[in-house]
Amino acid sequence: MSRTPGGAPGDAGPGDVKPGDDRPAAARLTEYLAGRDPQPLFLLGDALETLRLFPAASVDCCLTSPPYFGHRRYANGGIGAEGRWQDYVAALGAVSAELRRVLKPTGSLWLNLGDTYRGKRQLGIPWRVAFHLIDEQGWALRNSVVWHKVKGGPDPSHDRLRNVHELLFHFALQPKGYYYDADAVRNAPRSSRVIDGAVVSATGVSGVRYRRQIELSTALSTAEKEAARAALDAILAEVGAGRLADFRMIVRGQQRATHSDETAVSGRARELQERGFCFLRYHPGGAKPGDVWDIMPEDTQGRAAHFAPFPADLCRIPILATCPSGGVLLDPFCGTGTALDVATELGRRAVGIDVAEEYLNLARERCGRRS
Length: 371
Fold this sequence. Notes:
Blueprint: H1 25-34, E1 41-44, H2 47-51, E2 59-64, H3 85-102, E3 103-113, E4 117-118, E5 121-122, H4 125-137, E6 140-148, E7 165-172, E8 193-195, E9 198-200, H5 208-216, H6 222-240, E10 246-251, H7 267-275, E11 277-282, E12 292-294, H8 313-322, E13 328-331, H9 338-345, E14 349-354, H10 357-368
Parallel strand pairs: 1-14, 2-3, 2-13, 6-12, 13-14
Antiparallel strand pairs: 3-7, 4-5, 6-7, 8-9, 10-11
């Protein structure tokens, strides 16, 4: 993905840079969506105009990084070159409205945006765009991921901190029932082990401390203590059998419920009240990724063309989690094709749109190296 312009009124209509194929873009798109071609389809043209060629509910997932507001000036104008941030938000809103139409009901939109300063004021552009999508178009925001770029460029300012992060928003068309494969993106779990005949979890939990807390508790009745010991034995057996990687035990009077002691809002608080104990069970497939990602920008790849440092590693979790195998990924600002290249590598099909023909040629070459 590259911060390429989104086009402007009067630009040439949508096309395709595929050599030797001069059919209308709509015909090629229809054929691609109905077929099984594993190679990406590239469409040349303005993002908004080209999206109007797509049938409704025809794409599984969208992952994109549009041009940022005020970061560059493009020869033919387009998204990112507006004079006011309000116009930039409106322009991206028009594109996202079309994305709502072309995404399947189970689809997701991942939107990467950086911020802009004007007159020594940080504008908060990513959140202004996000609130527009939420409030005006009804998107369900599921995550706001902080992309920590590990290293940032030189910052000449002397009166503020250095900027080393961007935001990646995950929107769904509906708050429930969208496609999401959490198991595909879990971190590999550590294994439990046996030490001196005792089962020890991946993080060293053997149950000894919990047994002591149960025995010494003045907040548990005799019957509750007996039930707590039996439940602890059972969960340790699950760890020993490999059905559970790790767990934590919460005992009434010893630990508190993780986020609230109010039984009206916390199931764990209710369980503590009713049973005297509860467990936090960790998935045997490993933990889900958090919402802060340490990923280096791709600014040292030795590529001839100048384009934004949107890294392939930023694309992997969104694609694996929200685009089904064999599904179609869309990037309406595809630039040199980072998202499409990762999608192809992961067994997804992909369509990329960009207004810059030279970038699409680079993207075609990049994605074709595999074949």
